[in-house]
Amino acid sequence: MSTTPQTPQTPESERAGGVTVAEVRVLDGPNLYFTRPAVKVSLRLPGYLALDRKAATELARLVGLGASSPGKPGTAQRQRFVMRFAAHVTRRLATLVGVQRIAVRTRTGRGVDEVVVAIPWRHREWGRATGEELGPVLEGLLEVHAQDPVDAADVEDVLEAAAERVRETDPGPASQVVVPQVPVVSITGTNGKTTTTRLVAHISMTAGFVTAWSSTSGVVVMGETIEAGDYSGPSGARAVLATPGLEIGVLETARGGMLLRGMGVASNDVSVVTNVTADHLGLQGIDTLDQLAEVKAIVTTVTKPDGWVVLNGDDPRVWAMRHRIRARPWAFSLDPDSPALRESLDAGGRGVTLLDGEIVVLSRGKDPDRLARVVDVPVTLSGLSRFNIANALAGAAAALGLGMPRSAVVEGLKSFAPDPVLNEGRLNTYSVPVGADDAAAAERGTATVILDMAHNEAGLEALLEVAHGLKTPGARVHVGIGATGDRPDEAIEGLGEIAGKSADRVVIAHKPKYLRGRTIEDIDGHLRAGLARVGTVDVETYETELGGLEALLDAARPGDVVAYMAHDERPRCAARLVELGGSSDDPRTIRRKVVEARGGHELDAEIAELWALDDAAERVSRFRALVGDRPRDLRLAYELACALSEAGEDSEAVELHVATVARGLREPFRHRAQLRAAAGVRTLGRLDEALDLLDEVSTTHPGSVAAAALRGLVLADAGREREAVADLLDALLDHAADEDATSYRAAVRAQAEALREG
């Protein structure tokens, strides 16, 4: 991937006067300043900021700048004056070069003495040369003004000399920004752009189009990666559009490429902005979310007038981008009553949202077009991932905006899975055997592992949201976090704070390939600072992602979820999961996990139907058939054991209840199975075994009335009636709330204790 040569820097201490050229950057495509190629000049102008008011006014007069109010030295008003002054000088220089009516854009820099000047270019080297001459011209004007007396002719000499140097420069090539010959969609945003890119490409291939796409993972043609690496910039766009026989191009468009080189295409047919959240702030002059939103909006400014701009109506900064577009708006929102949807329809656009659990397209004056149920769209993880629901809405709108058949859009939504094949590194979920090492893998329970490229706070929050949605009742969430070195301190600390608040166990796993100027110790310290803010201090550190993952798996138990931020070592981590007997979850498995996490089972309706049967023998037979089809499903084994108990088959019921508990049956059914087993062994006369089971239930579920009642019966059977009555009195008082119980609680407890000792 080539880079744009930049002007060599001269240390400020070696330059005369009060002007420093920080950078001259050639932008080869639509950019933050213009919808065509431009040159950006970043300047520090302390000499201009330090001029007294009279001197600044005189200097403005000498260059022909109209009435102006320079303001006091060093003020923000002076900075605005200097921006206007620099723009005027730039126009005069361009006129002398031979360019009439040139557009000039200026922006403030980080400091009050910093300004940015940008101009468009038609010939690359003339544009660069003009930008390179701006600093010397501004410095030369300061030097002329410092003369006594000031000669106005010297001002003209400074400008003419610079213009002459530009005219003597070889013009260089004309603008070669790519004009797409096929429909193109440009997709940007802080989070979700890679998933949305892949989804749109998948729908396009489902529709039968020859499709190529570029993203942070590489350049892909019809599902085959032809160039690996980060191709979310102009080079990726060029590679995609050079694909032989191409019919649809899908371009992930990242902030870095737009800032450093401009967009890779002159226009697009559809643009998508997923969201704007804090990420990479403090780099390349982008310090605030509003500035970042302005960068993301570049893709929308070059969308053709008859095209579509797909905007997140739930993100105010994204929805505000509609004010600069020439194309038609298409809002997407998780809220069907969002004002953005109404505004989009009123402006002649469309909307896409959720109604009654379905993805629907809204058009003015028409009934909602229902595309698919959210639970039938695998990338949403059965509706669990709000971020991916939003990505599915955006992807559907983009595909329809490109003119793809509705049937292909529906089919593509239903067949795009969040697995390592179609969406590598984005919420890839696995089932991995965990628990006793001496048990056969088939007999061990499984934990869920999620590998995700979460790289910022919003991404980690989305990952943990899914982790909690997959966690079974009573289980734990483990998280492995790490950070890249190009994030601000507060962003790295934010990752630690989010993890500490949301997870039961945290480990830090570093990314040596992504230190980017920092040390492991530095990043580690900031992550720990964030963790400490929420009281999480007992955290282990690992120098590799694989090491951290293995540590979390060692501590995981059946039903737990391991949420893992994996970047450079993601392939090794995925391979290790397979080595441990893990497998990638298909949509059906994910759906089952979501239901179980909510305390249900995918066959709840059928289970209820069997329990409604009057014939106990038939019920047992039907449950045996279900267990035969799903021998590893412990919930079904539990239901069979209960059916056996109801049918009077106590011996087999007890054996099966004990086996399901040993194999990792999860709550709320685990302690219920122990209670059932205790009742069964009591019937069989194994009273000591019943008491052991009830003691375990009392430990995990203190205050269980069922356990107390059953224990009283077992003690009575064992001839320990006084102890049984004492225990039942304690249990009664634990749950009594009337005034009499309150008044006599201490006395009755004393009598109960006397019975035990008696």
TrEMBL record:
SUPFAM superfamilies referenced in this protein's UniProt entry, alphabetically: MurD-like peptide ligases, catalytic domain, MurD-like peptide ligases, peptide-binding domain, TPR-like
Occurrences of domain Mur ligase C-terminal (ranges): 445-565
Domain Tetratrico peptide repeat group: 637-755
Gene3D superfamilies: Mur ligase, C-terminal domain (3.90.190.20), Mur-like, catalytic domain (3.40.1190.10), Tetratricopeptide repeat domain (1.25.40.10)
GO molecular function annotation: acid-amino acid ligase activity; ATP binding
Residue ranges constituting the Mur ligase central domain according to the UniProt record: 187-399
InterPro entries assigned: Mur-like_cat_sf, Mur_ligase_C, Mur_ligase_C_dom_sf, Mur_ligase_cen, TPR-like_helical_dom_sf, TPR_5
Protein name per the record: Cyanophycin synthetase
Species in which this protein is naturally found: Lapillicoccus jejuensis
